[in-house]
Amino acid sequence: MSTFLTGWLSAEAPVLIVVLPLVMAAFCAVMPKDKIAWIITLITTLICAVLAFDIVLQVQSAGVLSYALGGWDPPFGIEYRIDGLNAPVVLLISAIGVICTLYALRSTDAEIEPKKRAPFYAAFLVAFAGLLGMVVTGDAFNVFVFLEVSSISTYVLVAMGASRDRRALNSAYNYLILGSIGATFFVIGVGFLYMETGTLNMMDMADQLAVTADGSRVAQLAFAFIVVGLGLKLAMFPLHLWLPGAYAYAPTAITAFLAATATKAALYLLLRFVFTVFDPSLAFIGATLTWLLAVLGVVGMFVASFQAIFQTDARRVLAYSSVAQIGYILLGVGMGTTLGVSAGYVHLINHGIIKGALFLALGAFWYRYGIKRVSDFNGLGKLMPWTMSAFTIAALALIGIPGTAGFVSKFQLLTAAADNGWWWAVGAVVVTSILAVIYMGRMLEAAWLQPAPLVNGKPVASREAPWPMMVGLWVLAIASLVFGIMPAWPLELASGAAQVMLGGGL
Question: What is the Cα–Cα distance from 49 to 453, expressed in whole angstroms?
């Protein structure tokens, strides 16, 4: 079956998935009651998730979806273009949006001031639409526009964490400065590409660059600016300095949403430009893959893993872990082989699922017991057994234990590195996975093996997280198990993405 939606709805899905949350964000902003804004947000994200799943089915059937806005055919008009490279990312963003919205029903009561809750949902929908827009558009300047739409709303969302911790304001400011620098680098690179090719349509750019890019200094300069700009956005080491603060002090639902989607969307853009706009067979592209992305990926794996070990704040542990996991993805991409880029891509999807579950669980621990520090995990397995069980599953997946999604993607990386003769990379993956055992294991050891704390000589009462928090958490935890035991579908999606990148481009 190529699709389960029919007629107009299926045909307009590529544009509806972006326009709908933008329109609904305006309604949320003026709602007098935050619960109404939440209902609007939940319905909107649910519709977008259904549209995204239909888009994936269409792409698997037809190969490429092309939507010409306003009836103006590309390259003269703006095109939304979805293929095997971006369709899974669209589905990931949409699904995580639903889960984080459901979670926010209770988390915002504890973290956001009442008068700011409706604007919170409005900003969330704008960020959601911006991420989807930058993934589905086939126009390079539109990428910049949606990049800024999502970024500006994200800065606001991170700052809203100040109701719980004033350090959120400083983190939002740092994120704004570094994010603006990244966006500036990116748009300068797009400007150089326009100077070189005379077009903003990415498919048309690829055709033009195929003729001129090898000997063109302008194209090489454009490539350098785009890689640096997107490197800041995806938190590539050492351009990751904004990430630990943003993840540590943003509202819980936003931290989980950003960790699962924002860096993944930026990673998609890097793959799009490196492999389909430019020609990866060119000498300067190959050198960038091997000596920049792969090397920085491995360095980031080690440095961020060591930093995670010495963190005392649980959120910062996971934040530095995210930088390390991005390194795994960049290592796979840097190999430049079909096995390598496929392994990096499947880890992109799997890490989004795993890290979303981990941050949702941390938020539930804080919601019930105010837990922020690793040292406060003592006895959590007895106080919140269901929540801690979901956290444990996701933690084991992050480490790469067999039977989990994390093992599948790490095994693919090991296979690709060995096939490429990169035995040093095999060693790097193994050693940094051992480091993950250390920084995740100390939380699991405290939760399951240490006694629960006493208050006035009496044990603390056991209280699970509310059901809106538990549902999404367990969906992600179960997904990390299902995709570990039956990995055929994510591997098929990764194979389709690799085919787009190395088997015919756009």
Answer: 41
Cα angle: 76, vertex 3, 494; to 5 degrees: 75
Sequence-ordered list of residues with C-beta below 8 angstroms from that of 6, at least 6 positions apart, any chain: none
Q: Say if strands 65-68 and 454-455 run parallel, antiparallel, or are unpaired.
A: unpaired
The rounded distance, in Å, linking the Cα atoms of 117 and 472 is 20
What single-letter amino acid sits at 476? L
Asked whether 100 and 472 are in contact (CB, 8 A), the reply is yes
Residue 215's identity, in one-letter code, is G
Quote the crossing angle between the two packed helices 338-369 and 488-502, to the nearest 10°. Answer: 130
Question: Count of alpha carbons within 13 Å of 101, Cβ hemisphere only?
Answer: 31
Q: Which amino acid is at 318?
A: L
The model scores a pTM over 0.85: yes
Instruction: Compute φ and ψ for 408, nearest 5 degrees.
Output: -60, -50
- Geometric angle at alpha carbon 248, from 385 and 228, rounded to 5°: 130
Task: Say which residues have a Cβ less than 8 Å from residue 310's Cβ, sequence separation at least 6.
Answer: none
DSSP conformation class of 79: E
Alpha-carbon distance 238 to 42, whole Å? 36
What whole-number distance in Å separates Cα of residue 354 and Cα of residue 364?
A: 16
Q: Residue 143, Cβ neighbours under 10 Å: how many?
A: 24
Both structure tokens of 331: 């290592």
Each residue's pLDDT, cut to its tens digit, for the chain (506 residues) gives 456 667 778 888 899 999 999 999 999 988 888 899 999 999 999 999 999 999 999 898 888 888 888 778 888 888 899 998 999 999 999 999 999 999 999 988 888 888 888 999 999 999 999 999 999 999 999 999 999 999 999 999 999 988 888 888 999 999 999 999 999 999 999 999 999 888 999 998 988 888 775 668 888 899 999 999 999 999 898 888 888 888 888 999 999 999 999 999 999 999 999 999 988 888 888 888 888 899 999 999 999 999 999 999 999 999 999 999 999 999 999 998 899 999 999 999 999 999 999 999 999 999 988 888 888 888 888 889 999 999 999 999 999 999 999 999 999 999 999 998 899 999 999 999 999 999 999 999 999 988 877 565 666 777 888 898 999 999 999 999 999 999 999 999 999 989 988 874 33
